[in-house]
Automatic annotation (TrEMBL):
Protein name according to UniProt: Class III extradiol dioxygenase subunit B-like domain-containing protein
Gene3D superfamilies: LigB-like
Region (Disordered): 86-108
SUPFAM superfamilies noted in UniProt: LigB-like
Low complexity compositional bias, start-end: 86-101
Lineage summary: Bacteria, Bacillati, Actinomycetota, Actinomycetes, Kitasatosporales
């Protein structure tokens, strides 16, 4: 059952080497993410699963120790999804919509969202003795399937935790990646409210089409969280809610 969860955004600018001179602008966001990861550790889970958006090549399970790189952003920064577990445990669910696939070999390289998560785990001091797995989910994944995947993940261990990576809308300002859309702010307000209240019903009800139009890359991972947390007695805490580059960034903790 799910005993704790954290939600963090996944912009590559979280990595200071990529942000370079602009790195201090996101110091508050980095600090909030670190606090959320440490709160996950404090819950003493038996297993952590990191869920994040992924392009087709990165969808599905990623084993502990899987490698990622930020070379595409012009920096020589490489990460691994924590250290390999002693028992070699790996696996996950096929987020492309094919159901559980324990025999599916993990992808060779982490998608960007999970690479950012790996960086966060490393810099927050995650205990490598706690097994970690990754799961890349596709933006088109239907809400119903996201919720099913979440339910399946929650049953993986008696004390399961999730680190959910994903941004809000990318249409909050004129200079935002998706330009200004007046529907973006109300969408993000509802997401922030749901995260603060640990409202699984509100996350499950997020409009898929509207999320796509507003470039809200975190919609599917958030709905995986909604499925995983069904029936779990969790309370929410919103640690960060800003749109520094016209993109909604949230950090939240759910705990019992």
């Amino acid at each position: 059952m799910l005993i704790a969860a954290a939600v963090c955004p996944c912009p590559p600018l979280l990595v200071p080497e990529i942000a370079a001179g602009a790195a201090p602008e996101l110091d508050g966001l980095r600090a909030a993410c670190a606090e959320a990861v440490r709160a996950l550790a404090a819950a003493r889970p038996e297993r952590l699963i990191v869920v994040g958006p992924a392009e087709r090549a990165g969808r599905g399970p990623h084993a502990q120790g899987a490698a990622g790189s930020f070379r595409g952003f012009g920096v020589e920064v490489e990460v691994r999804l924590a250290a390999p577990a002693a028992d070699g445990a790996s696996g996950g669910d096929d987020a492309a919509g094919q159901g559980p696939s324990p025999s599916l070999p993990p992808s060779p390289s982490l998608p960007l969202s999970l690479a950012v998560a790996a960086w966060l785990l490393e810099h927050a001091g995650w205990d490598p003795a706690v097994p970690v797995e990754g799961l890349g989910v596709g933006e088109p994944l239907a809400a119903e399937r996201c919720i099913e995947v979440g339910r399946e993940l929650a049953g993986r261990a008696e004390r399961m935790a999730l680190l959910v990576m994903g941004d809000g809308t990318a249409c909050r300002t004129l200079k935002a990646p998706g330009y200004l859309d007046e529907r973006a702010a109300p969408f993000d307000v509802e997401v922030a409210r749901a995260l603060a209240a640990a409202d699984t019903g509100a996350l499950a009800a997020l409009d898929e089409e509207l999320a796509y139009e507003l470039k809200a890359a975190g919609r599917a991972p958030l709905q995986v969280l909604a499925g995983a947390a069904e029936g779990a007695p969790l309370k929410g805490e919103l640690r960060y809610d800003e749109a520094p580059y016209g993109v909604g960034y949230f950090v939240a903790s759910w705990s019992s």
